[in-house]
Amino acid sequence: MDRRSALKRTGILAGATLALPTALSLLQACQSENRPEWTPEFLTAEEALLVSSLVDTLLPRTDTPGGLDVKADMFMDKVFARTYDAQSQQYLRENLASLDEACIAGYGEAFADLGETDREAFLKEEEARGGSFNPGVWGTSVGEQEPVSFYRNLKSMVVWAYVTSEEVGKNVLSYDPVPGAYKGCIPLSDVGYRWSL
């Protein structure tokens, strides 16, 4: 496989999710679903359990809502079902299976069945071999992007699903609906550092 093909394949998750015109409508659709009644549109029950376990481990509930509280896993399933083409869906399925197989090989159980300590240890290993994204300006990578792992792309999507949720946008990040009032020349300490778009 040449470098261009590798970059294309590893960018499927991040690239497909960052520029979706239907993202807001998908997010809103998830908010009306209850977790016990949730039937995934695309993911199998086993895949959905893996994705939900990853979301919960990466973004657990603390003094702020966790990834499962804002239904990041449900949103991701809708993105997979409604925006991925057949090739991207197949790539996703194969890599979810590979991720779980690596977990079984290293820890003796599927990721969803591991305890918290083993889950964190497995994800630290994935982080170490996952590569990293170049810094970006307005969604465009600065410099030539080296390939990153499937896990790194999936983690990026988990974070994206979380921070774009209504709950996080309004109640965790600072929120000022557009158009906001114009306030010129005020100290940064009055503004704060974390803002939702």
- What Rg, in angstroms, do the CA atoms define? 18 Å
Helix content: 55-70%
Q: What percent strand? A: under 5%
How far apart are the first and last residues' alpha carbons, in Å?
38 Å
Q: What count of domains describes the coordinates?
A: 1
Q: Strand order of the main beta sheet, please?
A: 1-2
Q: Estimate the mean pLDDT confidence.
A: 81
Query: What global shape is seen?
Result: globular
Which spans have pLDDT < 50 for at least 5 consecutive residues? 1-21
Largest sheet: 2 strands, antiparallel
| Number of helices, counting only DSSP H or I runs of 4 residues or more | 10
Which structural class do the helices and strands define?
mainly alpha
The number of E-state strands comes to 2
- The helix/strand series, from N terminus to C terminus, equals HHHHHHHEEHHH
Descriptive report:
Strands 1-2 form a two-stranded antiparallel sheet. Mean pLDDT is 81; it is low at 1-21. The protein has one domain. The protein contains ten helices and two strands; from the N terminus they run H-H-H-H-H-H-H-E-E-H-H-H. A hairpin with a 2-residue loop joins strand 1 and strand 2. 24% of the residues are buried. The protein is globular. The termini are far apart. The protein has 197 residues and is mainly alpha-helical. Helix 3 (23-31) crosses helix 5 (72-83) and helix 4 crosses helix 5 (72-83). Helices cover 55% and strands 2% of the residues.
